[in-house]
Amino acid sequence: MMRPLRLVPGLLLLLLSRPAPAPASTVVTHLPGFDGPLPFYLETGYVGVEEDTGAELFYYFVESERSPGADPVLLWLTGGPRCSGFSGLAFEVGPVKYVLAPYDGGLPQLVYNPLSWTKMASIVFLDSPVCSGFSYARDPEGCDVGDYSSSLQVQRFLIKWFTDHPQYLSNPFYIGGDSYAGKVVPLIAQYISEGIEGRQQPVINLKGYLVGNPITDPKFDENFQVPAAHGFGIISDQIYEAAMQHCKGDYVNPVNQMCAEVLQTVNSLISEILDAHILYKKCVFSAPKPIHDAMARKNLLEESVELNEAPARPAIDCLTYGYYLSYFWMNNKMTRDALGIKQGTVSEWKRCKRELPYPYDMPSSIPYHINLTMRGYRALVYSGDHDLQVPQLSTQAWIRSLNFSIVNDWRAWHLNGQAAGFTIAYANNLTFATIKGGGHTAPEYQPEECFAMAQRWLANEPL
């Protein structure tokens, strides 16, 4: 296992022993606010994915800290859509996290995350779709992408990235993501699998994919919020019974006035709690939360804004305080210089860019789940069990709609002698798991349990 040494000659030797990074990439040995050299290999860079508009996707590559020559390579996408891949790196499964200290106008501090998934895999964190994070397009029209076009760009990115990094081509490759990314992950995997069958070069060693608290199909995702709210004790038996009676199972499109009224009551009660995690306090929240409402999407600005003002400041005991710190850290010149950001491309970094257009043009990802698993690719679907945005009930329901036979029935899975959640294994290498105490998204709330789950699944072991 190669680790960067604290002595400069050792660090130099380590970097010299690796293949030279691609021309548009930067090896990052130090980060502002992080004490000393990074104890892992970090590379950042740009990959062009569309010549006409000059669209380039920005990535952060962290090499496995265990056995990079043999460990899986994982592409990690963050939800939103249009949230930066850095969110996955700093708040979910990556090797750094912020010190949650009151912001005083200085540079926020970073520390090493010992529960990083880079202990078991090399991970590419990607700013996708284009114009998320530090990804950009010379022509502003290049930012206007949706489910299909952005997924094709990710496939293009991977072909080019692996061409520049051939030493990882033989490693098992997986695609992962959560929230809205969970919707496009199967589509991207489908494009990759079609490229493999068409003998596209280089041949990517795709083994499967994993999605957490995944947006999948509104017929399931949204319809199960009402029964989940009842199960969590947010709405009463009487309200739930009225909803069932008047809405006839459709809680998304009210079929009559009585249904509309009871849903208004339901939504009012849900608004009292944090739907990302029903046990946490409500805070200023800018998490990867999909925007389903058509009018809300229509009213969003269609141009990015110049650096103007910081996001609202949450209380320091809020989970979102780290998001707040990331805004100042990322918009600091020292940070941008360290990461190799091209000057003049992105004036203001935002964790999630709501103001850009995004057509939600793929109605459901279920056909891709069926196709991939039937072709032999492995799939892990997991849910934080306190998430009301995409309740585990909805995820279980669409998985059951696949009609796969059960291979290993519902049981607890354990960590340190305690139930860490529950799991069920289906035919065609499909595993579903809950994360006890997890929210939307699970690794942010229960990092230790998610680390154990990923470690076992990537090693082809039962949870």
Structure description:
The chain has about 475 residues and is α/β, with parallel strands linked by helices. About 30% of the residues lie in helices and about 20% in strands. The protein contains 15 helices and 13 strands. The chain has helices spanning about 10-15, 85-90, 145-165, 180-195, 220, 225-230, 235-245, 255-270, 295-300, 320-330, 335-340, 365-375, 390-400, 440-445, 445-460; strands spanning about 25-30, 40-50, 55-60, 75, 95-100, 110, 120-125, 175-180, 205-210, 380-385, 405-415, 420-425, 430-435. The strands form 2 sheets. An 11-stranded mixed β-sheet has the order 1-2-3-7-4-8-9-10-13-12-11, sandwiched between helices. Helix 3 packs across helix 4 and helix 7 (about 235-245) runs antiparallel to helix 8. It is globular, with a radius of gyration of 22 Å.
Tell me the layout of helices and strands.
Blueprint (H helix, E strand, L loop, with lengths): L7 H9 L8 E4 L13 E9 L4 E8 L10 E5 L8 H6 L4 E3 L11 E3 L9 E5 L20 H18 L8 E6 L2 H17 L8 E7 L5 H4 L3 H7 L5 H11 L9 H14 L23 H6 L21 H10 L2 H7 L26 H9 L3 E7 L7 H9 L5 E10 L2 E9 L3 E6 L6 H4 L1 H12 L5
Helix pairs in contact: 3-4, 4-12, 7-8
List keywords for this structure.
alpha/beta, disordered N terminus, 463 residues, Rossmann fold, 18% strand
Supply the helix-strand structural class: alpha/beta
Strand order within the widest sheet? 1-2-3-7-4-8-9-10-13-12-11
Radius of gyration computed on alpha carbons: 22 Å
Number of helical stretches of at least 4 residues: 15
Distance between the termini: 26 Å
- Specify the CATH class of the domain at 22-216 and 361-379: Alpha Beta
Strand percentage lies at 15-25%
**Biggest pleated-sheet summary:** 11 strands, mixed
Shape: globular
CATH superfamily of the domain at 22-216 and 361-379: Alpha/Beta hydrolase fold, catalytic domain
Q: What CATH architecture label of the domain at 22-216 and 361-379 applies?
A: 3-Layer(aba) Sandwich
